[in-house]
Amino acid sequence: MTLILFLASTTLFALPPQLGDLDEDGQATVLDIVRLLNHIKGTVPLSASLQPFADINQDGFITELDAKRISDAVLGITPLPPVLWREC
Length: 88
Ligand SMILES: [Ca+2]
Ligand SMILES: [Ca+2]
Fold this sequence. Notes:
The longest helix is centred in the middle third of the chain and has 12 residues. Helix content is about 45%, strand content about 0%. It is built from 4 helices and no strands. The two termini are about 25 Å apart. The protein is globular. By secondary structure, the chain is mainly alpha-helical.
């Protein structure tokens, strides 16, 4: 039973609560931008489970526009959008 609860909570926290939170620390930081840019450049590709969270403007592509959205969040201009499909 304890093991099941542990697994359940692990699953719950396995994905970021916000789009663009690519290091899963719950906030938008420069590190999230770095991870996104590394993915765009192909240096360090994001894992398949994280890639949907990198498409912040939801246009189906991971580009510099999404990096811009994270930098706006870091600067406090526009907060990152919540993950809408998470409750499903
Ligand atoms: Ca983060
Ligand atoms: Ca995008």
